[in-house]
Amino acid sequence: MAAIIEVRNLHKRYRDTVAVEDVSLSVQAGEIFGILGPNGAGKSTTVECIAGIRAPDRGSITVTGIDPLRDRRAATERVGVQLQSGQLPERLQVAEALALYSSFYPEPADWRELMDSLGLAGKAKTRYGKLSGGQKQRLSIALALAGNPRVAILDELTTGLDPQARRDTWSLIENVRARGVTIVLVTHFMEEAERLCDRIALIDAGRVVTVDTPAGLTARAGVEQRFEFRPSAAFADELLTGLPEVSRVERRGDLVVVAGADGALSAVTTVLAQHGVAVRQLRVSQTSLEDAFVTITQSVAKEQS
Amino acid sequence: MSLVVAEMKLSVRDKVGPLWGVAFPLILLIILGNVPTMRQPEEANGGLSTFEIYVPVLILFNLAMLALIALPTTLAGYRETGVLRRMQTTPVGPARVLGAQLVANLAIAVVAAAVFLTVARLGFGVHLPENPAGFAIGWLLVAGALIAIGLLVTALAPRRGVATAVGTVLYFPMMFFAGLWVPVTQMPPLLRDISQATPLGAGIQAFQQAYEGSLPSARPVLILLAYAVVCTAAAIRWFRWE
């Protein structure tokens, strides 16, 4: 599949601070592409350049084959944007905002349908200033989709939402993608990126650290598998530390905590079973994207220093 | 067009323009019209009654309230909360929001001026300007000058609150020189000279000339044009969308 967004060697500085050092990305049509990184990593600046509302100092960007800065009109028609800082007039009502925004585009989406699918129908006559954080966020997503865009850029879309509203928003994003819209999602929530994204770019200090699938990132980080259990009978630690897959055994009261490579779990249960010890209350902790993120950014930082 | 309609609705909901810019001067007009001494022709006013002098002053009251306070407050607020920035990502762009704000305020001001003149004419028998074209030209020039000043305030004020404060601080002395408290004709010569150099003072001069049947003379026209051109240029120079 062809790339719908192509960013090459993007560089942007504000006075003395470099926001984006060197970012290159390519986003495939139809995917949910995550941009993940700590605060101040340059995520927002990158997507603002992609949206064409910030001029990069160096580098080239094409979105749906056009330069979003030079070809403003076409870019605004094809790219829907939900900004971290963009708002609406306090006294504008939900339905008015949607009707107004769809009047800006040559081939708008049906805004009533958008309003329904985003669960805002009951708020049609409510003023923007009176909406809750989650409702504002949903309206903001609806407005980003008002022009039937091919690409939607969503910046920090669930920041400040309660867990339920966050989950609702996630299923919403999946529905949007199902309509064939390519989504660029900026986030600093690992859980969000893991749940939604097909591929993720890790950005740190203005550079792309790596681009991979969520599973690929966790595997690449090579973080150990960890599990804990209560044995049915006493046994010597050497039984486990002698296994090649196991790197560490710890005891916390009657709880045994084991860390090791893939396959450690089956090796441990097998050897214990041979000695007549049953494994009870087993808990396996999966390596999370968060662990992967920390491991990958730290190893890159070490290489550079 | 839909933007203009939206901005008008918002202005009406905002209440600053309609309440202080339209309803308040209208009520003032009706109250003053009901004070008998206000209706007496006065020698000091060149044979006009004080009430007759107040009709154009209140039209300026309305224009100044919209251009110096309502407009900068709204636009600076839009900038502060990211409304203009959000518009940058649409095909319409933030400049049209600004344009729609101007058109919405101008439309409210035209309606207000027409209502004031009609109420004064039908309610209290005040003569309409002898030279309607001259009056319209004067009104447009004042509107141009005041909007330019309002946009300059918007450009320079860092926040919505500051824009409102600066607009209000400009508003009262300017209304003084329009003759809101003391009619310009009764001011001492020095104050009258200063008055004629201010936008509203020049405006009231142009209105008076129109009432007397002539087109505005060169001096108020040039003064108003100068304010409009200089302030617009400065506003463009310093305007920020975010």
UniProtKB/TrEMBL annotation, chain A:
It is found in: Cell membrane. SMART domains: AAA. CDD domains: ABC_DR_subfamily_A (cd03230). It is a peripheral membrane protein. One of its GO terms (molecular function) is ATP binding. The lineage of its organism: Bacteria, Bacillati, Actinomycetota, Actinomycetes, Micromonosporales. It comes from the Bacteria. Keywords: Antibiotic resistance, ATP-binding, Nucleotide-binding, Transport. This is Multidrug ABC transporter ATP-binding protein. Its main location: membrane. Residues 5-230 form the ABC transporter domain. PANTHER family: ABC TRANSPORTER ATP-BINDING PROTEIN (PTHR42711). The keyword Transport applies.
TrEMBL record, chain B:
PROSITE patterns: ABC_TM2. This is Transport permease protein. The chain crosses the membrane at residues 16-33, 53-76, 97-124, 136-155, 162-182, 221-239. Keywords: Antibiotic resistance, Cell membrane, Membrane, Transmembrane, Transmembrane helix, Transport. Residues 16-242 form the ABC transmembrane type-2 domain. PANTHER family: DOXORUBICIN RESISTANCE ABC TRANSPORTER PERMEASE PROTEIN DRRC-RELATED, TRANSPORT PERMEASE PROTEIN. InterPro entries: ABC-2_transporter (IPR052902), ABC2_TM (IPR013525), ABC2_TM_bact-type (IPR047817), ABC_2_transport (IPR000412). It is a multi-pass membrane protein. Belongs to the ABC-2 integral membrane protein family. It is found in: Cell membrane; Membrane. Pfam families: ABC2_membrane (PF01061).
